[in-house]
Structure formats: structure tokens, C-alpha cells
Design goal:
By secondary structure, this protein is mainly beta. It is 6% helix and 63% strand. It has a 12-stranded antiparallel β-barrel.
Length: 260
Amino acid sequence: MRAHLFIIGLVTVCDSLGLAQGIREMSTDRPDVTESAYSVAKGMFQVEMSFFDYEREANGPESVDSWIYGQMNFKYGLATDTDLQLVFDSRTVTRASSQGDVTKMSGFGDVMVRLKQNLWGNDGGRTAMAVMPYITIPTGTDLSADAWSGGLAVPFAMTLTDRLSLATMGQLDFVPDSETNGCDLEFLATISLGVTLTERWGAYSEIIISAGEDTDAQHRSATGVTFAITDDFVLDAGIRIGLNCAAPDLGVFSGVSFRF
């Protein structure tokens, strides 16, 4: 009941502020893996969070189940074409099973700081592009990587028709290697097709490919829906499916995005 009242209160506040008037349309990095090429409007805050994000990976007698509750992305518009983001998982729970032995871990993970710089298309045109460097700060918890890391994402967006849009992203990550005490390169490439179903409903379908120096390539697909309660308050839900043996088998998620 409290959660229900909290959501109603947020919707009321966002709607009463009249945020949609005179400000560019809200664009979010969730729910797909492909990040948005559009930045948060100057002087505005935007919150994108998951209610839950569940993922399962099984390989014979071994399996790993993970739950993320309250994955947060706090954004602030620094300038007309620049925003600053703070990303973290409020609580993560992992359960690894191997031949009857079960290991559980839970807690708070590392913190990521990102800066999105829109290159063009923020306020008009059929295409938009941005660059987004990031660093991950180790927190020293049980779920921490215990090392600094970083990378760069380059999202691109294109409006195809009044109802269809295409988005792609390339990402290069420098991740810590505990065996060599150095860094490995990992790559991520995505392509996402979005469709406006009605004034409030939207949907997307996405292909995600990732690979690394010490990891096998993972191929995944994802699909999801969004529901805009107002122009500034959007709910989402979706599912991810592994397309090859190296990828996690299944993922299910739901969340919300709003700005003020």
C-alpha cells in the first residue's frame, strides 16, 4: 500500500510541475541495453530505476541465479547537451549452485559515474549521437570487483517513421583481470528497434552481442514494453533470452523512469 501511494505521489508531482511544456521529450537509457543518444535537459533531474532484474544462467549441474533490486541511475542535466549520471545497484543477491553445493552472496555493488555528451540531434533532426565515458569505483563489498575500471559507450539513434525508431550502440570496456592484475578489453554491440503502439504504450526488440579477451561471445535478444502514465513518468517491463550457450539463459525485469 505504501509503495502504491508513493508511485501515485510521484506521478502527481511530475504532472503538476508541467515538465513536458517547453522541454524536450524525456528519453531514457532503460529498459533496453542500448543507451539513449539524448541527454537530460539542463537543470533537470532524471531517475531511472528497476523494481527488480532477475537473471539465470545454467550449464549442466551448475547454475547461477541473480536478483537486483533497485538498480538506480540518477541523472542531472549539466548543460544543454551534457548530463552527469550515478549508477549503482541498491541490493544484489546471487545464488550459485554446483553439484548440490549452494553459495549465496548479497549486498551493495560498485558505483559507476558516467558523463553523456550529446554530439547532435538533442533538439531536432532525424538522427542523434552521443559519447558516454564512464568509470566504476570499487566499494570493497563482497560483490565489488575491488578494482577501478572504465570504458566508453557511443549510442546512435535514428527516427525511421512517425512510429518506428532505430538505435545502436558500440561500447568498449576496460575490466580488471584478477589473474594478471591488469585489464582486459571487452566489447558490446547492440541494435534496438522501437515502436510507438499508442499514445501511451511503446515496445522494443533488441539484439545484444558482447565478447572479451578472456570470455566467449554472448548473444542475447530482448523485448519489452513501456507505459507512459504521464510524459514524465514511464513504467517498463521486459525479458531477455540467451541465444547461445555462453549467454545467460533468461532475464526478466521491470522498472520506472521519471524526471523533475
